[in-house]
């Protein structure tokens, strides 16, 4: 029998080429190997204030891009988190085995809470704290063997494993202790304007991020403005985060390895690098957006199908968990 894999993506902001290269593309290549459950984490988007129209657009757009990028609804159960109410219900049940201490030690909580306040907890939304419990519910509801996450989510997955172990001990549940498949860090795409930081879908700086919804011309222009350095020699180095990032983008889209890429750019200028990468990305977006348009009208149909499959497993598992808990 195929092993089961779960993954989710938070519906805050639009998808970027970083999301595509670092997480979507590798996940798609796993869909033959595993029984895949992939969802748009639209409930997680509520941990920070978000305009409802924006949320509605984001979640639909992510779903359509997932289809356009190559998730096959026959192989992957693709759905919206909020359409399976069992996620929220299990979330409550799991709170019984989690402490405030544990949750407040999560670095993502500390970072995001710090941005919201100067030690004023009145300003920190509760959802920011309890976020990892909902994530645990997302996972344990399907009892997977594997979870794909970015490196920044490993601490949350560690907590999930702890909660699963606790439940197995206290309530004699049979949760698998899920293992992480980490999105390939060599494919981590950095900001174009500040290449020491990850390319972020919620960045405020206009030229830092290439969204999958950018027009090919916009994307091309952003790459021409990308930060490099003054050496004008193309190679990988920690001291050259901008150039290394452009090389990584090149490798991600062409499938060439490091040596091949360096050979390709031997004795070439930064201008040539930027033009080449710009054209490749623009071309990719043009093709993708054509498929996106076709898929946008199919989102409801496929989401319904996915939700039906997910619901069946989620409700039967939740029932079993509740019985073990005496409910
Ligand atoms: N927290 C994850 C992120 O920000 C998204 C997510 C929500 C997730 N629930 C999940 C990932 C369950 C894996 C499994 O990337």
UniProtKB/TrEMBL annotation:
<keyword id="KW-0030">Aminoacyl-tRNA synthetase</keyword>
<dbReference type="InterPro" id="IPR002306">
    <property type="entry name" value="Trp-tRNA-ligase"/>
</dbReference>
<dbReference type="InterPro" id="IPR050203">
    <property type="entry name" value="Trp-tRNA_synthetase"/>
</dbReference>
<comment type="subunit">
    <text>Homodimer.</text>
</comment>
<feature type="binding site">
    <location>
        <begin position="10"/>
        <end position="12"/>
    </location>
    <ligand>
        <name>ATP</name>
    </ligand>
</feature>
<comment type="similarity">
    <text>Belongs to the class-I aminoacyl-tRNA synthetase family.</text>
</comment>
<feature type="short sequence motif" description="'HIGH' region">
    <location>
        <begin position="11"/>
        <end position="19"/>
    </location>
</feature>
<comment type="function">
    <text>Catalyzes the attachment of tryptophan to tRNA(Trp).</text>
</comment>
<feature type="binding site">
    <location>
        <position position="189"/>
    </location>
    <ligand>
        <name>ATP</name>
    </ligand>
</feature>
<dbReference type="InterPro" id="IPR024109">
    <property type="entry name" value="Trp-tRNA-ligase_bac-type"/>
</dbReference>
<keyword id="KW-0963">Cytoplasm</keyword>
<keyword id="KW-0067">ATP-binding</keyword>
<protein>
    <recommendedName>
        <fullName>Tryptophan--tRNA ligase</fullName>
        <ecNumber>6.1.1.2</ecNumber>
    </recommendedName>
</protein>
<dbReference type="Pfam" id="PF00579">
    <property type="entry name" value="tRNA-synt_1b"/>
</dbReference>
<dbReference type="GO" id="GO:0005829">
    <property type="term" value="C:cytosol"/>
</dbReference>
<keyword id="KW-0648">Protein biosynthesis</keyword>
<feature type="binding site">
    <location>
        <begin position="18"/>
        <end position="19"/>
    </location>
    <ligand>
        <name>ATP</name>
    </ligand>
</feature>
<dbReference type="GO" id="GO:0006436">
    <property type="term" value="P:tryptophanyl-tRNA aminoacylation"/>
</dbReference>
<dbReference type="InterPro" id="IPR014729">
    <property type="entry name" value="Rossmann-like_a/b/a_fold"/>
</dbReference>
<feature type="binding site">
    <location>
        <begin position="150"/>
        <end position="152"/>
    </location>
    <ligand>
        <name>ATP</name>
    </ligand>
</feature>
<dbReference type="GO" id="GO:0004830">
    <property type="term" value="F:tryptophan-tRNA ligase activity"/>
</dbReference>
<feature type="short sequence motif" description="'KMSKS' region">
    <location>
        <begin position="198"/>
        <end position="202"/>
    </location>
</feature>
<feature type="binding site">
    <location>
        <begin position="198"/>
        <end position="202"/>
    </location>
    <ligand>
        <name>ATP</name>
    </ligand>
</feature>
<dbReference type="GO" id="GO:0005524">
    <property type="term" value="F:ATP binding"/>
</dbReference>
<feature type="binding site">
    <location>
        <position position="138"/>
    </location>
    <ligand>
        <name>L-tryptophan</name>
    </ligand>
</feature>
<keyword id="KW-0547">Nucleotide-binding</keyword>
<keyword id="KW-0436">Ligase</keyword>
<dbReference type="InterPro" id="IPR002305">
    <property type="entry name" value="aa-tRNA-synth_Ic"/>
</dbReference>
